Amino acid sequence: MKSRFLKHHYYSHGKLLLTSEYLVLDGAQALALPTKKGQHLDIKPIDQEAIIWRSYLSTGELWLDYKFSFPLDSNDGRGDAIYERLLSILQAAQKLNNSFLNTRQGYGIESTLEFQKDWGLGSSSTLLANIARWASVDPYKLLDMTFGGSGYDIACATTESALIYQKTNTTPIVTPVTYSPHFKEELYFVYLNKKQNSRESIQHYRSLDQNALAEERARFSRFTQDLLSCKSIVAFEKLLSEHEDNLSRILKTPTIKTQLFADYPRAIKSLGGWGGDFVLAIGTASQMDYFRNKGYDTIVPYKEMILGE
């Protein structure tokens, strides 16, 4: 069978970071959860000497429609930031695998998100993980050459369970774990109606005094282990609040509960980059009306969001 008839399909899960946001960049253990929804990448050879790339939103709407000419180091000068970012990923993959796209064989590519792209569940990381598998390259090296970051989202992309993630100077330590708290019926993810730029959040964290963070890494690793073994909702809420208070102290930034939900009676925890995306809210189904009454209508139960539930 000729290669022109071969098709390939790749799929990666989205991600949520439950503990050690920011500190995970410096080696703190973090509890990460893959989501049920992710991103598809479908690739088929075409008769054109080019890459025709189309990206679709979860609604089915065509979002991106690009043509990349060979060789990939050529630039059509379009000045489109997303185009340039996607091109840079393909170029980085070529550097890691010099046999990748080294002929003029063209491809028609479709990427399809299952979640809303502004939710912060990993539209970039799922794409990068899919491209890494297509190119047969190390996704963590590809990440370092492109987006940067801790890599926990890359670990979530290809896992089927919760995991403890620890960044190292070489290969990260990824430990699959069973995490299905018996009080998950009281766990909800509430979208804050705005996308957080994780790169800006990381830049702010990097401006902090790094010498003072060594003991903080140990502290947040303990939070991760304690949360993993937590058996009661009361203890769980206490741990979440302590985690928020400690990170607030480090970042010198008020917690999201202090900023937006000060009168809510239960625990609320930011996830990932502070200031946007989702928060984890503890409460009953009826208590979620508190958020709806404030205009936060995207509320996803834990069992609907997290893979394996």
UniProtKB/TrEMBL annotation:
Keyword Zinc carried by entry: no
Lineage: Bacteria, Pseudomonadati, Bacteroidota, Flavobacteriia, Flavobacteriales
SUPFAM superfamilies linked to this entry: Ribosomal protein S5 domain 2-like (SSF54211)
Keyword field contains Transmembrane: no
Molecular functions per Gene Ontology: kinase activity
Membrane-spanning residues: none
Name of the protein in question: GHMP kinase
Domain of life: Bacteria
Keyword terms, alphabetized: Kinase, Transferase
